[in-house]
Amino acid sequence: MTYHVLLATGFGILTWTAWAEGSTIFVVKQVATTIPVVIIIGQIIYHKDDHWHDEADPDCLSCGKELELDWDFCAHCGEKKPSEFLTKEGDSKVVSI
Ligand SMILES: [Zn+2]
């Protein structure tokens, strides 16, 4: 995020410089490079609370939070994932630990 803000600031300064020099093509190029970075910053802010969700991911038996299939331990409470668990669809999955 810091990287993108610094990048947008730099592109913004270059846009202002191009404007001050009266170079239309330089202004257009700088605006065309600044806008995507600003859009990326907006996307980062808009999606900052999003969480990847997969229907096959089981819930922790201890705290109830979602686990990733390749996790051996719950990242939220530290509970060891049992070797066999039920997914949200009710299918029994066996995980080798
Ligand atoms: Zn847990």
Protein described:
The chain has 2 domains: 2-46; 52-90. The chain has helices at residues 2-21, 24-46, and strands spanning 84-86, 92-94. The longest helix has 23 residues, at 24-46. Helix 1 (2-21) packs antiparallel against helix 2. The chain starts with a helix and ends with a strand. With 97 residues, the chain is mainly α. The chain has a two-stranded antiparallel ribbon. The chain has 2 helices and 2 strands, in the order ααββ. The mean pLDDT is 83. Strand 1 (84-86) and strand 2 form a beta hairpin. It is rod-shaped. Bound molecules: zinc ion. Zinc ion is lined by residues 60, 62-63, 65, 74, 76-77, 79.
Keywords:
97 residues, mainly alpha, two-stranded antiparallel ribbon, 2 helices, binds zinc ion
Secondary structure: helix percent: 40-55%
- State the distance separating the first and last CA atoms: 36 Å
* Number of DSSP-assigned strands: 2
Instruction: From the alpha carbons, calculate the radius of gyration and give it in angstroms.
Output: 23 Å
> How much beta, percentage-wise?
5-15%
Which class of secondary structure composition applies to the elements? mainly alpha
> Total helix count?
2
| Largest sheet geometry | 2 strands, antiparallel
Task: State mean pLDDT (0 to 100 scale).
Answer: 83
Low-confidence stretches: none
Instruction: List cofactors, ions and other ligands.
Output: zinc ion
Q: SSE string, helix = H, strand = E?
A: HHEE
Strand order of the largest sheet: 1-2
